[in-house]
Write the structure tokens for this entry.
Amino acid sequence: MIYELLTIVSPVAICALIGFIWAKCGYSFDIEQVTRLVTYIGTPALVFATLTEVEIDPKSFSRMALATAATVIMFAVVAAPILKFSGLRMRPYLPPMVWANMGNMGLPLCLFAFGQEGLALAITYFSVDVIMLFTLGVSFSAGAFSIGRVLKLPFIYAVAAAVTVMVTDVEVPRWIANTVGLLAGFTIPLMLIMLGVSLASLKVSRLKLASALSVLRLLMGFVVGVAVAWIFGFEGAERGVLIMEAAMPVAVYNYLFAAKYDQEPEEVAGMILISTALSFVTLPALLWFVL
């Protein structure tokens, strides 16, 4: 069992460590360009390739999508009163408590733990979560709502195309499938390396508060994930993927939005860094629980 856990955690940790060391050594890494490459090419290719190649029925897709929305809502319902009782402002701290790193960390972990089926289910979680992040999350940080942000995300069109193929049973031409599969292959390694580079460049402040909120985020994620999986009657890979994605550390995107809208970016950075470090300690226990 220990060896199995290492085979799941090690690739994620090593790839992120490569990015971290790369940045600490002072080598150049254009995060903006790599992010654009992953967002506009890699992720849509990964979404389409996985959802069309793996046999996941529309019912499972819909169930996971609904369960994802339920976890996001429950995160907000649980975290908001705690933040209010603690005297902390909502705009800087609620988004990091709600939106976890379901992409850079969640996708590869679900792939290594549950194979292609786990990756397909994780991509469903990722898709719904990101749509809610770029509508509700960004709007909350910015103080204004804009559906245009979501319409600019190419992966939602990849989801729509993949669902169309799934429902109609249309056979994707082999040359398209091979091309998309090739492009999808660079996405997860780049995401993990980019995670390491991002962590190395974060400026942290108020470690005591960041540590407390990080522990709360990981604990809340696990409890909410288990509860929602039980409510939806999930078993096997569905249950494992939902719990793992819900229990991921704070997403790096939260820092980008906090910096853009001047919502305590350094403290949000502390939550990302500490929750990520803690997650590598708690991952073996989490994997043992879901496998």
